[in-house]
Amino acid sequence: MKEVFYVENLSLYYRDFAALKDIQLAIYKNQVTALIGPSGCGKSTFIRCLNRMNDLIPEARMTGCVRFDGEECQVSGYDVIGLRKKVGMVFQKPNPFPMSIFDNVAYGPRQQGLKNKEKLKVVVERALKQAALYDEVYDRLNDSALTLSGGQQQRLCIARALAMEPEVILMDEPTSALDPIATQRIETLIEDLKKEYTIVIVTHSMQQAARISDYTAFFYMGELIEYDKTDVIFSLPKHKQTEDYVTGRFG
Amino acid sequence: MSRRNIAQLLLDGTTYFATLLSIIALGLIFVYVFREGGHLLSVNLIRSDYHARNFVGTLREESPGSFPIESFEGDDLFPVERYGIVLQQTQDLAGDTVIRVYYVHEASPLRQLNNQDPTTNERTISLQEGMILRRVSYQEHPTSLTSRGASMMATDMNDSQREIREVLFSLEGGGIRGSVITTVYLIFLTLFIALPFGILTAIYFNEFAPVNKVTKLMRNFIETLTGVPSIIYGLLGITVFVPLTVRLTPASNANLIAGALTLSVILLPVIIRTTEEALKVVPNDHRWASLALGANKTQTTFKVVLKQALPGILTATFLGIGRVIGESAALIFVLGTAIRDQVRIFEPSTSLAVHIWSMMTDEPANIALSSTIALIILLIVLVLNVFIKVTVWAFNRKGSY
Fold first, then answer.
1. A-chain residues within 8 Å CB-CB of B398?
2. Is residue B150 in a domain?
3. Does B349 fall in a domain?
4. Do B295 and A53 touch (CB under 8 A)?
5. Domain assignment present for A68
6. Which chain A residue shows the shortest CA-CA distance from B296?
7. Which of A10, B121, B282, B329 is the most exposed, having the fewest neighbouring CB atoms within 10 Å of its CB?
8. What predicted TM-score, i.e. pTM, was given to this entire model?
9. B185 and B59 in a common domain
């Protein structure tokens, strides 16, 4: 299987606190990789290393190596904008811009200089269809995105990321602010998206990880305890800590 | 009653009392200003010149006739049948006692007077309705003056013993048109200078500047500037901006440009702070979302952050306008106190607030007109505030920008 990301000896410090310690793992193409672990274990920090969102935190300091498509992407001088174009991100809380639905999805392509209305329309429509939102909003694309429900807003954020035609989509607990029905829709969507995209998802729900992911990484106190195929992690974990966590004995 | 209840009652009481007191204070100011100056408030006041044009004329025919005047009702009206006019004892726009020409008969000899003012070319001038009669002098008789009243002037003019030697009359003056225009100029010039600088500075501080000792110090410095009395900015204006404008422009003295520059400096800290507050409210989520989509920092700032901060920036703008309208101390030095009817940006003039200052330093102080201008300023500020509320409300309701 082709590796999209290859992470080696990755450590990250907030001032003196080590949020990630010596992480080593590979993310495989067209697979769903779930990152699980208790709060504060570093899984969100890790996912933010992949599209260099940690650059925005002034006190974060990183060592080690992250390769994207074989190229080291943490070195200074690397095209961060280009990286973020290829690695989309969906956040925990739905965060559509206070603009119209259309403008939200068209935002990314527009910033890259796409002005042609017809082309934008095609891009937006395709992204909304991929995010399984088109049927619900096709007749009100000019309405404010804030009129949508929470679940719809989150799918809009996914559509917004898809409009950039990325290779990878990072999802940071995308369903934690949603109700069960909206959660289910997003999970179905992830299943569909997997065919074309590589997905890395941080989740608090073990069931969700078990349902949708192909690979699972278990983080604990900034360390990667175990990384394997999902069914292995949930049925035959090698480490006791993993077993305790996935069986719900702590966390 | 328990101690807790008493404490609650005490707290509630002080809250209500304080609220009541401040509302009463504001109400009293408004009532006072309205009582003193409400009667002078008119569209004419805003449209008229301050300096009245004077006319001096002599009669063409030696002997006046007799002109029947239809009856005019009113205690303040005094007919002069010998010359076919009716005089009115009244007040001008500035509230001074004057004698106004209420009616002029079609055949009145005062309609055709020889111009005695050598500075103008007109040969014929005419006394018209609405003009102010200042002085009528006679051959071998004492002059009729405004100060002795319209009744006395009418009696004197009707006296067949007296032959008119010269008539002095003027258009009605005392209007505030010049000051209104100056204020409008000041608002636009000041905002034109202060808004771009203020907004861009706020963006730099909130979006781009690193958080370190230097930027913190600069922020504190700006905060301090908000509290500096405006007369000190006036001094800055007269030592820096007036010489600067005199050197670089045709101005030779205090002028409007220097006034606008001084006001811009006063406004800058207000605009920077208000805009920064507006930028801070924009959730970081939106910045991250934009950056994660491959937009760069500038695009994020201008397309996402600034758009959402727009209501706050509008508020800053309106606050700025209010400040420009209300500022007087700084402008007295920089813009001058001479009331002008012809406003030019390289010459001194007065804003509405300084107009009040001028009126109050007159001898005697013109409290009535000052109150009227105060009323106008209060009304503008009130309208501006309502406008801010409505705009912000409209923006929030729309929720799309």
1. 144
2. yes
3. yes
4. no
5. yes
6. A81
7. B121
8. 0.80
9. no
